[in-house]
Design goal:
450 residues; alpha/beta; OB fold (Dihydrolipoamide Acetyltransferase, E2P); Rossmann fold; eight-stranded mixed β-sheet; seven-stranded mixed β-sheet; 9 helices; binds S-adenosyl-L-homocysteine
Length: 450
Amino acid sequence: MKKNDLINLEIIDTTLNGAGVGRYDGLTVFVDAAVTGDVVLAHILKVKSNCAFAKVKEIITPSLNRVDAECGSYPRCGGCSFRHIDYKTELEIKENNVKNNLKRIGGVEPEFEPIVGLSDVGYRNKAQYPVSMEKGGLKVGFFSGHSHRVIDCPECQLQPTEFSKAVSVFKEFLSENNISVYNEELHKGLVRHIYFRKAVVTNEIMVCIILNGDNLPYLDNFIEKMKSVFGDCLKSVVININRDKTNVIMGKNCITVYGEDHITDVLCGVRVRISPLSFYQVNHNVAEKLYEKAAEYAEPDGKTVLDLYCGAGTIGLSMAEKAKKIIGVEIIPEAVTDAKFNAQQNGFKNTEFFCGDAAKAAEKLKNDGIKPDVIIVDPPRKGCEAELVKIITEDFAPEKVVYVSCDPATLARDCKLFKEQGYNTVKAATFDMFPRTGHVESVVKLMRLK
Ligand code: SAH
């Protein structure tokens, strides 16, 4: 097999990236935007020693699970992976992916609960749009898959419709006022990203514009334009300064130029203040289901709960009414400030929040004699540090650990570490926090072996 070959291929499996998997000449072939049950004419793009990559040249027989993508930007835009597949099948693929990772990488086979998926259109409460001058003109949209080229994505169904409207108004604003946009290679130009957040319960909107500088020309006009889209729901406009030559979207400093420096949402009955730099789950309705499951696994009643990687404190605070005490740890200072404020505005007096690295803070808490009954971890994609797993299992040694994860592979790796340390993964539940995309959220319950 070589590049540009055309081969007939039966698709026998589907990956979490929405690629079909076939076998040919003893090689595994990954075909973009195909699905189990398809028979396709595949155009080979690249051949490696153990696998090949292809795209669909022609669908010979469509799978019964294939659907119309209903999006003009799919699959060019790198956002979605499953638009060509029906939602039920997407959920099965995601659930199986978590199961297989836990079994193969983690060596654990917990009792599995059915995946929760709500498939709300426009479910994302946050969107960050890169701004770029491309060959075809000014683009405010998303990076095309595996590239740094920005493409427009005017009708993205993952975002609330008003975000898409605001993007088009923003494009007009940039053009009319001749405002320079950032060029990654030259590290020149002003506007890098525009970022919207929506509190779905209160409808409050935050607009954050990320600049390679600290000042947006015609700022009043910009705010007027944003008001024309969001009306009274616009509660906060913030400039974020990012002068670094980096892929990281946000810089450390924010200047509030209109309204408040935050918006407020309600999650699991808790009022939550969200600042531009604080993490907040992007899918409100599924996040509530996830937190309910975390609470069911944690059984916080009358217990001391340590909530590591706590963001704005949301998981712990959702259990604060029942727990004896909630202790949260988070590395972003603004998120810790939000967490403390959130505890106070909800009248919880049994909470404490610390800013720092989870492993280092855990070690300090242990030295201070803190003895949590339950530990919750919710790390970013790279998972927990091995050092932290050691502190949790050897020093704190709680009966129960609840692990919330947005990456099945690192979750599985960590479940293996926990297993080696005498903790069995007994239950697992998956949540489709990011419908149509190749991401899935899970929560597992780990119990110390007697
Ligand atoms: N539990 C929260 C946040 C989860 S996202 C929620 O459900 O909303 C993961 C969080 O871990 C982010 O807020 C991130 O800032 C934080 N984080 C990343 N690395 C960390 C570290 N080494 N120590 C502590 N927190 C960290």
